[in-house]
Design a protein that fits this description.
440 residues, alpha/beta, Gyrase A, domain 2, Four Helix Bundle (Hemerythrin (Met), subunit A), six-stranded mixed sheet, 12 strands, 44% helix
């Protein structure tokens, strides 16, 4: 346990019915007793109504004090939660008084960091706490709750335990045998187990795109020639006027973005300047920015009208071609990744939204009940898989060198340990927890 005691508000700043202030550390109960002018200890997990006072014996507020005794608390330390009236002046007085009694202000994410350091959470679970708070859809919250409950950690430990089992047998073998193997079918069984672990890693890696899009959202870029109705389409999808529309080509000189949620996925829609050569400096800059957005998009919507030659974005797999202005142009029936709409009249927008959802969600669904959600996770599992593949390559030799296989398996295990936080450097820990809010 850490030796100091920290305090922070656990609810957003501002006015409200109730504010929550959280204290964690060895002096928590002592400080709470001083605040409440009590001599008897607080009962574990029992809410107690009490007046609280500052160091000058002046009443601050009437509040509910709840004590969580170590180790059965969020941080694994003694924790006090004070539910006071939702006034920032009252909250500030409580925090000031507690600091005068020997506590300090918590750093961002310090409560969860303490939970990790005290073994209440592993690093994967700790990351999911911040992800839950920042979730922009019910689907993202559901995925991150599964990670917080330990589902992903259990899968990683399952892979680790499998690799450990064969590593122990291999190291036993090259420690005691000189020529022939003493364990029947050792190589065959080892190959099967390592290959299954490799496949499990591959499944997790494939899930990252789904996790990334659900958590961080997708970028959908609307592009095309000038005056085809790109801005009108943006406004229609948002069901409000976000972009200026005009019959004059080149009205949109810069990218315009807005957020919606489709099928549980946060989507940033980006309206771009019409793609054409222009001598106007501002318009040319807008076109260049449009091309940059196209390169970084998760999905493109190519808006065209009758008579235009459809120009697909070279090398980009996810693209929908939208024939706009169907209210005044009689298009043949389209299917697949091509659709007829009228952005102005709203015709075909429901079908277009479904097509966008299918492109973003179904095409990215891994089929796994577990998904990776951070770049750190996918890099560690990728390195783990690479080490397993290298081990299989050594085992494929006619006379495999078990010491080399053992080296690769140890590296695979280290990658998983790094992911869970067992061998994580301080700079990685600081990066993980610095993105949290102060009271968490």
């Amino acid at each position: 346990m850490l030796s100091d005691t920290v305090i922070a508000p656990a609810t957003p700043p501002g006015y409200g019915g109730v504010s929550l202030v959280r204290i964690s550390g060895p002096k928590s109960e002592e400080i709470a007793k001083s605040l409440a002018k009590k001599t008897k200890p607080f009962k574990d997990r029992v809410a107690t109504l009490s007046s609280i006072y500052n160091s000058r014996n002046e009443k601050i507020d009437d509040a509910i004090i709840t004590y969580f005794k170590t180790p059965s608390s969020y941080t694994g330390e003694n924790v006090i939660e004070i539910s006071c009236h939702g006034n920032p002046i009252i909250v500030d007085q409580i925090i000031t008084s507690v600091c005068n009694m020997g506590a300090r202000i918590a750093e961002p994410g310090e409560f969860t960091k303490r939970a990790f350091l005290n073994g209440k959470l592993d690093l994967v679970q700790a990351e999911s706490v911040a992800a839950i708070i920042k979730s922009q859809s019910t689907k993202a919250a559901r995925i991150n709750h599964k990670i917080l409950s330990g589902d992903l950690s259990n899968k990683l430990r399952e892979i680790k335990d499998s690799v450990l089992s064969v590593l122990a047998k291999l190291e036993f073998e090259f420690d005691i045998s000189e020529n022939e193997l003493t364990q029947p079918n050792l190589i065959k069984n080892t190959v099967n187990i390592i290959n299954n672990s490799r496949l499990s890693c591959g499944s997790l890696i494939d899930s990252y795109e789904e996790g990334r899009i659900v958590n961080k959202g997708a970028r959908v870029v609307i592009y095309g020639e000038p005056n085809v109705g790109k801005s009108t389409l943006l406004n229609a999808l948002l069901e409000k006027d976000r972009a200026i529309t005009s019959e004059t080509p080149g009205t949109t000189r810069d990218t315009v973005d807005a957020q919606i949620v489709l099928g549980g996925v946060p989507v940033t829609l980006i309206d771009t300047a019409g793609l054409r050569n222009s001598n106007n400096t501002l318009e040319a800059a807008g076109v260049e920015r449009s091309r940059s957005e196209i390169k970084n998009a998760d999905l493109l919507i190519n808006v065209v009208t009758l008579g235009e030659k459809v120009k697909k974005s070279a090398g980009f797999g996810k693209e929908i071609t939208v024939y706009n202005k169907s209210d005044i142009i009689d298009y043949p029936k389209k299917d697949g990744d091509t659709i007829n709409i009228s952005a102005l009249m709203g015709h075909g927008l429901g079908e277009l939204k479904n097509l966008i959802k299918n492109k973003l969600i179904i095409k990215n669904e891994s089929g796994s009940s577990l998904v990776l959600t951070t770049r750190r996770q996918v890099m560690a599992i990728s390195h783990c898989k690479d080490s397993l593949v290298a081990a299989l390559k050594h085992l494929g030799n006619s006379a495999p060198e078990l010491e080399l296989v053992s080296f690769e398996l140890r590296d695979a295990i280290n990658q998983i340990d790094t992911l869970l936080g067992k061998t994580t450097a301080d700079d990685i820990l600081n990066k993980v927890f610095s993105g949290f809010c102060v009271g968490k």
